[in-house]
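Hi F.,

I've been meaning to write this up properly since the lab meeting, where we talked about keeping a consistent format for the predictions we share between groups. The idea is simple: the sequence comes first, exactly as it goes in, then the structure tokens exactly as they come out, then a line or two of notes. No screenshots and no reformatting. I'm using this chain as the first example so we have something concrete to point to.
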Amino acid sequence: MSAASAPVFGNSTDSESSIPALETVVVVSSRQSEPLRRVATSVTVLDEQQLKARGLASLADVLRSVPSVSVSNNGGMGKTTYLQVRGESGFRTLVQIDGIDISDPSNPQGGAHIAHIMSSNLQRVELLRGPQGMLYGADAGGVLDISTRREEESQRFEVSAESGSYDSQRYNASASGGNDTLDYFVSSAKAETDGFNTSSDDTEFKDDDGYDNETLHGRAGWNLSEQWRVEAVVRDTDATGEYDRCGGPEILDDCTFEYSQESARVSLAHKGEIGQQELSYTHSDTSRTYVSGWGPSHTEGDAKKLNLIGSHDFSNNHSMLYGVEQRKDTMGEADRDQWALYSEYQGNYADQAFVTLGFRHDDSSDFGSHNSFRASSAYLFGQVAGGTFKLKASYGTGFRAPSLYEVNHNATATDWLTFEPLELPTLSPEESRGLDIGVEYFDENALHLEIVLFNQVIENEIGWDGDVYGYLQSHGKSKSRGVELITETQLTDSLLLSANYTYTDTEEADDSPRPRRPEHLANLGFTYKPTSTLSLVMNLRSSAGAIDTDGSSMDDYQVLDAGVRYQLNNVTTVYIRGENLTDEDYEEVPGYNTAGPAGYAGVEFSF
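Output, unedited:
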């Protein structure tokens, strides 16, 4: 169940097992390919076969089975969705697709719209858990790195169709190919659903709130020589949907939205004997329109990023990664320029101890300069109980400047009744730090165990205060700490067990629990493959111990999903999938409904 390998993307080992191994290559930790034996940060990887086996339409739903990830959704596919890693707000996790940072400067906290990323046509997803993403940005409290399919010496075409509950349909088509000189990937995906009644407070209209998503993605690379490569990526997502509880002279339950994001990236890379460099430029334009009782409202965010990243090998065991970044964010008439310099030393001592020391300097046009750093270390103990133990630790710092939206709102907000300006405070940057300490055990693709203790702190956290109708800054520390327990094991030749449990203890600056952060998260999954053509996947997820913004207890719940895939021949695969099979009645966000039991069936053609 390994993904196809590529020189600049992570790959699994040659084994058919999806269990992480010491030689499993990841990219997200240090922005370059390196085996897990060297990685001291906490990383989760999902490859193409795992994504297909789960089958869920939304990538956010797929990530619910990942350690430390909780998802809050306001009423179905495409609705407002918050992805929280280790109890931190979703906007702190940077999201990029084929190297494109898809954050939206017009979003209240500048984060990506995870709700509009479908799981179709993806080859690999890597999640860096925790605030160790200094190389991507001082405000990267985690990194979700998504890549599409690559072929080295072949052609591959895929077409699929799915239909199911809530009058849902999905259609996908993709083509990829490559040789020593050229490679490409193009895909088209469409997802649509009539949905269900979003709000439990909608007791009169009671309409279904649907969603449509169309995504086009293309990537092409040209190897000019053995040393030089040019690559271009374009991505376009258009989505529309309906939702409830929108504002106006009176609360309405017949509201609509439109979402559009156009993104592109071009890069020139050079690979030499003692290092490599890449110069890239990305541009992402995001627009959103909401139609409510007040009429249409429109926001647009534009992000441009120029980045030079390189590495130099002093020897086989010592190297330096370095980079220069210039970014400009725009929201309406407001804009921000930011420059950054960063570097990281990477050392290998006797192929047993691995060390990194990183430094980053950011200079913002409106909030001045700030320094952040990251240090990590991993140490291997071989031949222990037939496998290898790895001790690891990492520590990182960061800062987040108030978003353009937060700054603009506090500067221009007025009283709704008197239209007098509100006297809201001037915001200053947040500062953060995070510590990971863990141990992993690897046993020849048959067993992987991981235990991680984490402690994350944010000082001067910015948050919305409905009483003053503005953004206020806490004068203290917000905390998130806990433990992750993870195991994957091949119980028999045909049965794979995966399980994880995360305990998270959170505190606001006033020592109260942080709202909507589950204290207990757990997943128990089985993959049963009695033959080479038949596979059955089951996952039971549990969430418990979350409180709402008013201090009341939220729903504890357990949700069971399962799916069956059968390969009819070399070209055709059919599958069925069931979601919430036990008909669990629960809310992730108070006042917003969740889906009941649902079934889906589909067919895939690959040749």
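Notes:
Confidence is low (pLDDT under 50) at residues 1-15.
DSSP finds three helices and 33 strands in the chain.

If this format works for you, I'll send the rest the same way.

G.
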